[in-house]
Design brief:
By secondary structure, the chain is mainly β. The protein is 5% helix and 50% strand. The protein has 1 helix and 11 strands; from the N terminus they run βββαββββββββ.
Length: 118
């Protein structure tokens, strides 16, 4: 499983960024994909996961109402639109996949750094 995350950068508090995670067609069709993040000195935490249809998603409480996860079947890509960013959103963001809804995430892409300045 190969996952390629991109789109990180430096943004001021209140700003927006969109992260992308590109996968192979096989992975996109057959695996569940989601986003995690790891802030300095903290454990990695779940951020968001799109529903199978891509019309809704599951979110960590800390990002609900600010982040939107989506998937584009034509591009085999999962996106994370991040709005109203806060300094506490600063972290390395990872794209991950798993074989089913009930299984743990077990494949990880390289991270992309998001830095939110105050």
């Amino acid at each position: 499983v190969q996952l390629q995350a991109s789109g990180g950068g430096l943004v001021q508090a209140g700003g927006s960024l969109r992260l992308s995670c590109a996968a192979s067609a096989h992975t996109f069709r057959n695996f569940v994909m989601g986003w995690f993040r790891q802030a300095p000195g903290k454990e990695r935490e779940f951020v968001a996961q799109p529903s199978r249809s891509g019309t809704s998603g599951y979110y960590a409480d800390s990002v609900k109402g600010r982040f939107t996860v989506s998937r584009d079947g034509a591009k085999n890509t999962v996106y994370l639109q991040m709005n109203r960013l806060k300094p506490e959103d600063t972290a390395v963001y990872y794209c991950a996949s798993k074989t089913s809804i009930t299984s743990p995430y077990d494949s990880w892409g390289q991270g992309t750094l998001v830095t939110v300045s105050s």
